[in-house]
Each structure stands twice: as structure tokens, then as C-alpha cells.
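[Q] Does anyone have a clean C-alpha cell version of this?
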Amino acid sequence: MSKLNFSEMKLTEIDGTPIEAFEGHKLVANLLWKHAKNLDLVETAMKINRGEEVEMSESDIKELEALIKDPQNQLFAFARKTVLDFIGTS
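[A] Here you go.
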């Protein structure tokens, strides 16, 4: 199990300037809320949305990774990379 707090993710412009208004944890939460196959991740999504630390199993992280990498979810490439770097799977 990995403890993750997605509200700690930092997104930057291409030149490295931080994007202050980025709420990446909400992006992750909404993605899980709408598309997770594992229904246990619905509760995890609610915690992530509140900015809480969550514990995720390896299989949960793999499911999130698959959702992030799916181009049909219409995430910008730099946002996908930020999340994948954060969960350590890029």
C-alpha cells in the first residue's frame, strides 16, 4: 500500500513556472469518480477530492495509471505526466 496526498502535486508551465491555480487532486478524484472499475475507488475519490491522504494498493495505482494514460479521458499531456510522475509510474 502506498500513502498518497494528491493535493501535494505541483504542475508547472513549460518553462518551469508553477501553475498556482492547478487543483490536480480534483482532476484525479473526478477521473476515479467517473471511470473507476473498482468500486472501492469511489470512496478513495471522495477522500482525494477533499485533499486527504489516501492509501492505494498496487492494483489501485495501476487502475489509476490506465485511466490517466487513456487519451479518451482528454487530459492534457503535461497534466497526465504530472500525475504519473507523482504516483511513480511514468
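[Q] Thanks! Anything notable?
[A] DSSP finds four helices and two strands in the chain.
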